[in-house]
Amino acid sequence: MKTIYSKICFGAGLLGSLVLGSCTGDYMDYNRNWAEVTADEMQRDEYLISSLLGGMQNNVIPAEEHLNQFTECLLGGIWGGYFADSQSWATSFSYFNPSQDWLGKMYLDVIPNVYSNWLGLQAATSDEAILAVGKIVKSAAFQRITDAYGPIPYSQIGTDGKVTAPLDTQKEVYTKIFEELDEAVATLMEHRGTSISAAADKVYAGDLDKWIKFANSLKLRMAIRLVYADPTTAEQRAREAIDTSDGKLGVMATNDDNAYLSGININPFYKVAYEYNGGETRMSADLLNYMKSWDDPRIGVYAKPCTITGRTSEYWGLRIGNEYAIAKGQAYSNLNIGQNDPILWMNVSEVMFLRAEMALYGWDTGDTAENYYRRGVELSFEKWGVESSSYLSCYTPVGTYNDPNGTYTFTPQTECVPAWNPSSAKLQLEQIITQKWIANFPLGHEAWAEFRRTGYPKLQPTAVNLSGGDIATGKFARRLTYPSDEYKTNGVNLTRAVGRDLPDGGDKFSTHTWWDCNPDLVNE
Prior knowledge:
The protein is mainly α. It has 19 helices and eight strands. It has one domain (1-524): Alpha Horseshoe (Serine Threonine Protein Phosphatase 5, Tetratricopeptide repeat), CATH 1.25.40.
């Protein structure tokens, strides 16, 4: 296979200042200002491209431990129902009262990190394939950011990569990302039979066919997100994504297509779960209660058994929003994750569940919704190396969670079981989303987005709500609010966007964004 070598352009654009700071010493290893690399360092083409593309890839799901802690463990993992804090803080996402610093991590750190490296990549090379991959990576990062906040700076971000710019509507961001994914796929199709440097690509080691499938799979994910906001566009984009006519590659089909970020120093989820104050994150009661109720064989690869109140080697998740002291909270099941494990971006199981939902609407005639659903579960089992001959015939309801410490017991309000329901489309959708939630662990932001869109899986509300009346008792956060300092540095643009795009609630956790308009959830 022929390898593409990039043409380096040492322009003045690479010599600007795009510095970002942090509280950790190795932060710049992940988010270095590559506009400030010395001329001697620039002599190696592969080094520069690896640095810039790697800088983008490291910020889709942040590889830097502190940034990952805020965006994934404390935010997405909790609001998505996967994790719980192992200790009670005065302010937290669990209680709906995070600090302003926490609110700004995705907005003020991830956006500049991704965009400054993207600008550097464009200045550093004219290699079409590398730039197409960079465009896909940028799309993957910004899709998560707009899902969290709603309106964000995107099309008018300046040459400094900073966010002091007009905000695009969420619809505009989605529309632009669809266009950019199409452009990237078209470019990579022209370069099939070649590759980019494996050393420069920490996700697919330069395999362009896999990047094409990932881009189409991301497009499918985004299309299904629009089912209630714009069903016409949702169907059109979903059909385009899965199309395999005329030599098109379509979406992920096997576990070999899964997207992982590898080559990181240490898995940040491991750092937070095992090293921060003895471990600041634990498995949630919601997730482990579903898995225990259904004898899910993946429980042992997701979680560690624990011993609580004399109960030895059992799996006990921790209630989100608990007020336990750290010694008590840390006794619950931890994540079963290794120091060198790669970071999941997307897997083929999710794609099968997306296609199952398409089939429910009559948009995918390649197979039935039930068969796609079953394939999604089976591929997840295959991915984790587990087996169960009875899981998909299980009719056992989700049982009561009996907190071993007696404080946070609850009974889930759901009829969902793994065995396919042959008659109720509503229950079928709940089954699809619930199994996708389990298979997508630990993609908390994706879980939170799908929970807002569908209301599934059925999760327990936080045990303690300190939102000050923003979020009603028993309800959930619909979006992330902007950090207050943005009203000082970009106030005109931000105020205009809030009034234009969030008129029903303003800049609040409880305000629904554009695609969050399921008619059954308007009062949630």
